[in-house]
Write a structure and sequence with these properties.
With 638 residues, the protein is of the alpha/beta class. The chain has one domain: 3-Layer(aba) Sandwich (Alkaline Phosphatase, subunit A), CATH 3.40.720.10. The chain contains 16 helices and 18 strands. It has a ten-stranded mixed sheet with strand order 7-6-5-4-8-1-9-10-2-11. It has a four-stranded antiparallel sheet with strand order 15-16-17-18, covered by helices on one side. Helix 5 runs parallel beside helix 8.
Length: 638
């Protein structure tokens, strides 16, 4: 193209006219450029032209419907599907006609697990090392809580490949400042690939009066239990879609708030467990261990870890304590069984509508280990961060309010720590403990009648929450896209489990995995694991909520341990002194993974509770602990 020589001697009006002419000429030229994706012919007349209509996007022939089910705050030893004493007949049926994965891992807390699940990438890589809450995020690439557009979700991928996409329940990865009806909505579920969403955006909510959202607006709840409402919506979305486009595959992300606190459920469910837990948490652990051995989900020679020093032996409790604590567990068990029932409604609808045989279902029973956030005596109306209240005072309050456990009045109902250890059998520790299998190992069920030959099989391959996305894509015959909406996509970090569906001895493809939650950290490689616990307000739950001044972080004094999980699956034999070279190798690997996945700077609870923050909705120098007290709903941990 001939270059224009600009005449600097022209007067200002003339310069403006010439510049305008140049811009118009360039725009006209740009508009006349042929669309590289257009395959027709554009002539001067219709007779000289050839029309082109792109083929509508369709899913691969025979592609399955996909249902992802993610529960909240459920330990490995809770559900009967994996040997627990809480009845979950829907999960039992799916597992008995599908596969039980015994070596599946989450991140040890909610928001990072959900971010990793939805994207197939590590939580730090997608900016959710902590949370999307203002009070629990930080202005660093791995910590700001904002999933970038180049880390597309499973919903975005499937929608671009001919699926309809629905989500119901808990989302948990929308930044607080975006979560109003003014948006912006690009980080709401509908902005991340879901055609429809019905549920709540935060970490927890009142199950009878939820902070409820439908699509892009808050709506008024109807008074029914939230899990009942989301189940109706899920079935309704599928019915409407199938009526309009019979046979078109759908993706349903079903993530109830259950069984995160507040534990709320109708009495008919909790009363079914009256007296069932009177023997206490020590007996529960022994019975769960025996059941797990019978099912084959743990080694036949497995031994329980010692009771945690924080937990009182059941037989040493007072009669009042036993009565109170048993009621907490009756409610929790009823809540889990009720949740299983509601999921069964979805499964039964798919069966009755002849869609189940070609439906791929993943059930992750928990987004982390059992919750330790109920303190040693349980909570009913107390907030996790309640100031200046002792366990003794809370115990007396709970005894007086025992009738409120599980009801709409129990806005923070959570069971005592002893039940967290029991429902985490056969592992030690619990939620938030990223250094421990008790925080990160959860049951996984894979059900796919069309694609799984062995019914009721056990799979022991090491796997991680990031693996579900690539497994889903491989089963559906869909490649991870290079671009989504013209944005080049980052790599998928998860590894597909496809080969293991019909080969119990298939190689574990997930070789390396880091873990980090507020100071607690670990690194896994080929069966070996190095781990370090880090002091925080929840390491000793009896000190939580006492309004103590946070201790400055000191990660250098943390003691690293070493385990060979191939021989010691529940971490009873620390090999750090025996194999110092292996420990040093893994610590170096942790540093490499931390750098690769935006994990630095390391942030722990003392940093969170003690620092001043930028609060977009208020005082820029407000103390986080004060803000948590003012906003217990969003200040709750996931």
């Amino acid at each position: 193209m001939k270059k224009f020589k600009f005449n600097s001697k022209l007067k200002t009006p003339q310069k403006g006219l010439l510049l305008t002419a140049l811009v118009v000429a360039q725009l006209s030229f740009a508009q006349n450029k042929a669309d590289v994706n257009y395959k027709g012919v554009i002539g001067k007349t219709l007779a000289e032209s050839k029309e082109y209509w792109p083929e509508p996007v369709k899913a691969p022939a025979g592609a399955p419907n996909v249902v992802w089910i993610l529960l909240d705050d459920v330990g490995f030893g809770a559900s009967s599907a994996f040997g627990g004493l809480i009845n979950t007949p829907t999960f039992d049926a799916l597992a008995n006609n599908g596969l039980r994965y015994t070596n599946f891992h989450t991140t040890a807390i909610c928001a990072p697990t959900r971010a990793a699940l939805l994207t197939g990438r590590n939580s730090g890589r997608v900016h959710v090392s902590g949370f999307s809450h203002t009070v629990l995020s930080a202005g660093f690439p791995g910590w700001d809580g904002r999933i970038p557009a180049d880390k597309g979700t499973i919903a975005e991928i499937l929608r671009e490949n001919g699926y309809n996409t629905f989500a119901v329940g808990k989302y948990g990865v929308t930044p607080d400042e975006d979560a109003t009806d003014a948006g912006p909505f690009d980080r709401w579920p509908t902005g991340k690939g879901f055609d429809h969403f019905f549920g709540f955006l935060g970490s927890q909510t009142d199950q009878y009066n939820p902070d409820l959202v439908e699509d892009q607006a808050h709506v008024k709840p109807d008074g029914r239990h939230l899990t009942d409402q989301i189940t109706d919506k899920a079935i309704g979305y599928i019915k409407t879609q199938q009526k309009a486009a019979p046979g078109k595959p759908f993706f349903l992300y079903y993530a109830p708030g259950a069984v995160h606190a507040p534990h709320q459920v109708a009495e008919k469910w909790s009363d079914a467990y009256k007296g069932k837990f009177d023997e206490g948490w020590d007996v529960y652990r022994e019975k769960a261990l025996a059941n797990q051995k019978k099912l084959g989900v743990i080694p036949a020679n497995a031994v329980l870890p010692d009771r945690n020093a924080l937990i009182t032996e059941w037989k040493k409790l007072t009669p009042d304590q036993k009565k109170l604590y048993a009621r907490f567990m009756e409610v929790y068990a009823g809540y889990l069984t009720y949740t299983d029932y509601e999921i069964g409604r979805v499964v039964n609808y798919l069966k009755e509508s002849n869609q189940l045989d070609n439906t791929l279902i993943f059930v992750a029973i928990g987004d982390n280990g059992a919750s330790k956030e109920g303190s040693q005596v349980g909570t009913i109306s107390q907030n996790l961060f309640s100031k200046g209240v002792s366990d003794e005072q809370n115990l007396q309050s709970n005894l007086e309010k025992i009738g409120e456990i599980g009801t709409a009045k129990g806005l923070n109902t959570n069971y005592p720590l002893g039940w967290a250890q029991a429902t985490n059998a056969p592992f030690k520790n619990w939620k938030q403990d990223a250094q421990s299998e008790g925080g990160t190992r959860n049951p996984l069920i894979v059900f796919y009648p069309k694609g799984i030959k062995e019914k009721g099989g056990i799979r022991n391959q090491y796997s991680h929450v990031t693996d579900i996305l690539p497994t889903t894509l491989e089963i559906a015959g869909i490649k991870a896209p290079e671009k989504i909406k013209e944005i080049k996509q980052d790599i998928i970090q998860g590894s597909s489990l496809y080969a293991s569906l019909n080969d119990a001895k298939a190689e574990s493809l997930h070789k390396v995995q880091y873990y980090y939650i507020f100071g607690n950290r670990a690194i896994y490689k080929d069966g070996w694991k190095a781990a370090a616990a880090h002091a925080n307000p929840f390491t000793s739950p009896n000190t939580a909520g006492k309004n103590q001044a946070p201790t400055p972080s000191n990660f250098d004094t943390d003691v690293w341990e070493l385990y060979n999980l191939n021989e010691d699956f529940n971490e009873r034999n620390n090999l750090a002194k025996k194999y110092p070279e292996k420990l040093a190798e893994l610590k170096k690997l942790f540093d490499e993974q931390a750098k690769e996945n935006n994990l630095y700077p390391l942030i722990d609870w003392s940093d969170v509770l003690g620092r001043k923050i930028h609060n977009p909705s208020g005082d820029k120098n407000q103390n986080i602990q004060e803000l948590i007290h003012k906003t217990p709903q969003t200040g709750s941990t996931n």
